[in-house]
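Fold this sequence, please.
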Amino acid sequence: SAIHATRSQISRDLQERSHTNNKGSTSPQCVWVRNPFLITHIHTHTSLIEQHNTNMPVPPRKSTSPPPPSAVSTLPPKSGPLTQTLTTIKADNLSLITNLLRSSPSSSSPTTPVKQRLVFATTSLQNVLLRHVLNVPRADEVYARLKKLKSPKQPPKKEPPTNAPGNDVILPKHLGILSSRVLLLKEAQDSSTPNPQSKHTLGVGTSGTEVSLASSSSAFFTSAEDALDDVDCSYNTPLVTCFVKNDTEEVRAVCGYIKRLCRKLRLAGREVAQTHFRIVFLPHITTLSEKFLMEEGVLPLENVSVTSVPLDMIPLDEDVISLEMDSTLRDVELNGVSMDVVTTVARSIMKLQDVSKVIPRLQGLGELGEAVIAKVLGMRLEEFGYEVEEDEERDDVEGALEKKDKEEIEGMLILDRRVDLVSPMLTPLTYEGLLDEVLGIDCGFIQVDTNIIDPPSSHDHDDTPSTSSEPPPPPENVVLHLPLNDIDTLYSEVRDQHVETFGSFLQGQAKALKESHSAFTNKEKKKDLNEIHKFVKQIPIFTQNLRSLTTHIHLAELVKQTTEESSFRQRWQTERSMLESEQCYDMLEDSIACQEPPYQLLRLLCLQSLTSGGIKSAKFDSLRREVVQTYGYEYLFVLNNLEKAKLFRRKDTSWMDTASTFTNLRKQLALINAEVNTADPDDVSYVSSGYAPLTARLVQTATQGWTGKDEALRELPGRLIDVTQREIPEDFATSLKRSVIGPGLAPLSALATINDKKKPVLVVYFVGGVTLMEIAALRFLSKRPTFPFSIVCITTNIINGGTLLKSLS
């Protein structure tokens, strides 16, 4: 009993689920803990209790390894390149948000949880905080909620209303959270693949969304009456916590919500001072946002407080970390606040070095890459005095253990998104990239209708006898947030496969699953007790794999419907012609006349401009005029912003035509590989059936050395920076004097430590966003035995052509 109580207490403290075969068993449960140090702690603790009860010395425990995860849990083993670092970042994020929610606005120290309502400016913020930081994104929990929705209806329990689409998120009740709300709901306006089974249009989805002015939860209204009807104050709580980023639109939405709620509380005869509004900025508050709060008349209010949480890096996968900064290029190109972006990125790198070790070598391409490196070196120099004092007070043994346990990163390559603006405009041909194009992936989640992943069938109503001749009512459509990450082992295998192969791969998985089940259920072969016991233990795993396989088969069918359309194939042919420097003005004019979705057309316009070095003056004015006359005057401002960002520009007139910048890069870096085998690829160009993303080629070149790439470096915007960080920090100018700028510098692989068990880690940092097509290409390089590094991708956000253009609109 003592052993059982101790193990149960430890399992509750660790918040891990115990697994048992017999529901009513009272025997000690086996807790699977992913941290080996905690497993040792459990064994040691229970051994002391056994020694106390028997008054006998405890024999030395044999070094037995814990059971494989597949035997007790659906979670796969964590074997990423920076597992310990990501775990530490997740724990730090959880601690930051938990301490904030537990604290009262009048006191900064954590206290008893206060009842509060959470308000998020956007759906992305809700996904980050509620689904990534406070809850583990697991697909089996979504399937459990789906099964609950299919079960007979129970009388609804009266709870505070929430308006989030597909609100299947689990609220942390232990932190006093009563409800959650999203202010800026989004709708798909650029749909090209409607699905008749769904209430909403499954087109571009979250990745290509616009603020809905007609939505009941929008921050903008047509009249004051609509504004008052939108805000619900029937559930009065002493605290309302609003999460927002440094975006003018989001800050305006939060200010409007606070003022409308205060007005409605006064009309209801309640004391406004009893409700406190806490505005939380992520990851910090800028001077512009603070000034905007004062202009809106919110900041001087006594019941309003403003704070910030340094929540920057969000691990989305075992090799992908995102800062979730959606307006990076807009801030740099249009708003002129590039230093805010540079500071945020530099702080994230400093945090990464605190968690791991000092990165010995930094390379940067582009203006933002150079600015980030300069900022990191400056921050290290400023903090050097504090670090020396801490090192003197720290015990030598403890410091040695810390350095030994930390994971090492051999190098970092920082890429300015403006170095390669062509790749985001292309259509990816991998499973994950197509899911982003069709459904929209937001923070590692897709909003999917239950009728897609679990379509209704005729036998669903056979078990319920019908007493009338009326047909059964149609099933209720519910939108769920389905996680897409490495926790789903099947998805981790299929996500980077080409569109021509992932269908057959899923079919092979289905056959293998069926054969494994048939092999046991074969009545001709007798089974002993050990085989039966092993099969019973594998039933939960089998059920989970079957659900995952069924889900991805239905999603693959939805993707196939899009890729098999003639318009999709024609679009791919047009993109390939533009990549080969052909002029496709007639195709662009035909697309405008056919009223193609506006942002799909704008992607082609920008692609034509980027690959050709601009559009001829006569055609430039003609295309602008046709776009405005066809889609409306609003797109005149969009075109102006794209022109400022140099995505859509007029070609410089000269007496002779010269090759464009992209044409020279295409030849020098071999970006086109038409002979690539998509079934068994040997080059990164398989991700788009023949085009290798420029950023992937730059990563390959950086690891091999820039010797002989002088012309390619001259074509790239900005200059190549390569510095070596030492234990004693140096300023940027001193580091540049010791390094070589240009093609003569040594390859990144020169510093790679040889280890047969594990490759060294190379971090590729995208400032301005990265596409899922580029991530698939980098994963392909990491898996190659001849590539010297395991790549971890850090980015300001995950983008595609639609989201990039909308952020500049």
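Residues 529-563 form the longest helix (35 residues). The chain has a mean pLDDT of 77.
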